[in-house]
């Protein structure tokens, strides 16, 4: 199974295995997402994509960020590889959108790390 997948295998009685959709991210996927978000310019690009509320054209992204086309291309590839965005290609044009559920899954994974204070501590 692909370590970047959001699906997980669940053992069921007998020889059959059931595949279920889950909001849990694998460790490898979490690490890839956090690494991609660690770059301030990449995070800014992700914010621009989210603010657009519809697929953002690369030309619009380029106009919104003070970076070269090559640097923009690199950041798009990193976000896409991490699974944060989808890139729809129409001829020579590219449109960027957030992958549904990924940020919510990441937030859930991070929230699960927090434990209530120990009694008396």
What do these coordinates show?
With 121 residues, this protein is α+β, with helices and mostly antiparallel strands. 45% of the residues lie in helices and 20% in strands. The chain has five helices and five strands; from the N terminus they run E-E-H-H-E-H-H-E-E-H. Strand 1 and strand 2 form a beta hairpin. Helix 2 (40-52) packs across helix 4 (69-81).
Quote the average pLDDT.
83
Give the low-pLDDT segments.
1-22
**What is the CATH level 1 assignment of the domain at 40-101?**
Mainly Alpha
Helix segment count?
5
Number of E-state strands: 5
Helix content: 40-55%
Radius of gyration: 18 Å
CATH architecture of the domain at 40-101: Orthogonal Bundle
Distance between the termini: 42 Å
**SS strand fraction:** 15-25%
Shape: elongated
Structural class by secondary-structure content: alpha+beta
Fold-level CATH name of the domain at 40-101: Arc Repressor Mutant, subunit A
Largest sheet: 3 strands, antiparallel
CATH superfamily of the domain at 40-101: Winged helix-like DNA-binding domain superfamily/Winged helix DNA-binding domain
Give the strand order of the largest sheet, numbering strands 1, 2, ... along the chain.
3-5-4
The ordered string of helix (H) and strand (E) elements is: EEHHEHHEEH
Short note summarizing the structure:
By secondary structure, this protein is of the alpha+beta class.
